[in-house]
Amino acid sequence: DIQMTQSPSSLSASVGDRVTITCRASQSISTYLNWYQQKPGKAPNLLIYAASTLQTGVPSRFSGSGSGTDFTLTISSLQPEDFATYYCQQTSITPRTFGQGTKVEIK
Amino acid sequence: QVQLVESGGGLVKPGGSLRLSCAASGFTFSDYYMTWIRQAPGKGLEWVSFISSSNTYANYADSVKGRFTISRDNARNSLYLQMNNLRDEDTALYFCARGVSSFDWLDPWGQGTLVTVSS
Q1: Residue B90: exposed, middle, or buried by beta-carbon count in 10 A (0-12, 13-18, 19+)?
Q2: If you average pLDDT over residues A37-48, what whole number do you get?
Q3: Which residue has the higher pLDDT, A107 or A8?
Q4: pLDDT in tens, B67-88
Q5: Which residues of chain A lie closer than 8 angstroms to B98, CB-CB?
Q6: Contact residues, B window 30-49, toward A, CB-based 8 Å cutoff
Q7: Given CB 3.0 to 4.6 Å as the disulfide criterion, which of A59, B2, B18, B40 pairs with B26?
Q8: Which among A43, A94, A98 is the nearest to B112, CB-wise?
C-alpha cells in the first residue's frame, strides 16, 4: 500500500496568513493526488484534483502543486471559513489511501 | 443537482451484519465509479471500497476484505455496502462518493450514515 504522510498534523494561523500543507507519498504517484477540506460535522469537499487543478467553485486562494512523491496545498491568504481539516488522497493505485489530515486552527 | 444520500446505519452487535445504501440523483449513475469511505469518531478518513461503473470490478481495503461486499444497481441509481462479521473497529461514519475520471477524484460526497458496533 502507498502511505501518505501529511505535515504538519495541525497548525495555528491567523486570518491573512499564508499556509502551506505538505503531503508525501511512500512511492511515486505521478499527479494522482487530490485534496479535500472537511469542516466539523460535515462531509469532505473536493478542493484540488490531479495535484494542481482547482475544483469549480473553490476560491483561487487555494492552490496545489507537486508530482511524484511530494505535494503541497497552499492557502495564500487564510480566511475565517478556511479553518478546517485538510486531507490528501492518492488515486494512483488501490487501496486509495488518505493522509492522516492537517487541522488548521485559529491562532 | 448532484446528490448522494446514505442510509442503513445503526447499532449492531459484534459479529452482526448491516447493509448500507447510497441513493444517487442528478447525474447518470451508470457512468461513474462509486466509492465508500469511512471515518471513525474523531479520526481521519479511511478508503473502504470502490466499484466500477458496470459492476464488473471492485476493490477493498485489507481491513474489510472478506467481510464487506460492495455492489450497485444502476437501474435503481443505488450503491450498497453489505457488511458482515462486524467488529468494534468498524464503528464509523460511512460516506459514499462519486469517482470522477480516470484520476478517480471523489466529488461529491454524501452526508454519511453512522454505524456503531457495540455489545
Answers
A1: buried
A2: 97
A3: A8
A4: 999 999 999 999 999 999 999 9
A5: none
A6: 35, 37, 44-47
A7: B2
A8: A43
